[in-house]
Every structure is written in C-alpha cells, then in structure tokens.
C-alpha cells in the first residue's frame, strides 16, 4: 500500500483526507481568509489612527512650545522695560533727594526754618512715594490701549 501525502494509516484507521484549516497568527483555527484579512486590515487601520494621533500630539506640543517661547520673550521684554524704568526712576529719585538735601543744607545755613521744614516735608513725601506706582499707571494705560471695545477721540 502506498501512502499519499497527508494520509495516516494505522491498524483499523480509515484513510482521512487532510482538512483545510487556516490558522491565524493568534492561534485561532477555522478562520477564513476573508476574516483573517479583515483582522489584518483592522490592525493596520488602528496603527494608522495611532500614528495620526501621535502626529497631532507632536503638532500640539510644537504649538505649545512656540507659545511658551513667545511668552518667555514677552517676559524678558517686560523685564527690560521694568529695569530701565527702575534705573531712570531711581536715578531721578537720587537727583531729587540730592536737590532736596542741598536745599535743606542751604535753609539750615541761612537759618530759614520755614524753608527747612517744607524741604523736610518734601523729603518725607518723596521717600514715601514708590517708583512702582508709575508702573501701575503704565500698566493701566496699556490695558486701556488693548481694549478693543474702547473708542478713542482725539
């Protein structure tokens, strides 16, 4: 007796035809080629969606990084304006204090008590004033200029 490929002969066994079975990569049997293809296409579709999601996230990250850089540059510009303002303000305050103390010295030398008292009042007022008060005025002006609903008449 000759053996055909796929047939098994044993005592009392009947010749069996090999069954046509397909086995997918997950080990499931009896899945048709169409179903296997559908699973593969579903996996490819899921991968494509994941890649699109990754690309969208990278785009969003780039947008956020650009916005952060813009804000950092804005803060640096504001810092420069603040430092320049403080330099000018404190220089102006120094000059004002020098002038007031010179006037006080002159009033004391002349014995002019009224002038000395008014000069000391001016020194106290200048010392109590804050150079940051002017910055609040600048900030309010800037806010008003940025208000789109505000009408300006010249």
Automatic annotation (TrEMBL):
Annotated spans, Disordered: 1-24
Top-level lineage group: Bacteria
Designated name of the protein: Uncharacterized protein
Species the sequence originates in: Chondromyces crocatus
């Amino acid at each position: 007796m000759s053996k055909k490929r796929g047939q098994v002969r044993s005592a009392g066994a009947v010749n069996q035809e090999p069954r046509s079975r397909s086995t997918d990569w997950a080990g499931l049997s009896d899945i048709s080629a169409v179903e296997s293809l559908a699973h593969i296409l579903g996996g490819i579709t899921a991968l494509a969606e994941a890649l699109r999601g990754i690309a969208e996230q990278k785009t969003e990250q780039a947008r956020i990084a650009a916005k952060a850089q813009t804000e950092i540059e804005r803060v640096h510009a504001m810092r420069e304006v603040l430092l320049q303002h403080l330099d000018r303000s404190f220089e102006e305050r120094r000059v004002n204090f020098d002038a007031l103390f010179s006037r006080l010295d002159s009033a004391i030398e002349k014995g002019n008590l009224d002038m000395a008292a008014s000069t000391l009042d001016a020194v106290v007022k200048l010392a109590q004033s804050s150079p940051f008060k002017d910055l609040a005025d600048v900030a309010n002006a800037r806010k008003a200029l940025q208000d789109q609903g505000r009408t300006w008449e010249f």
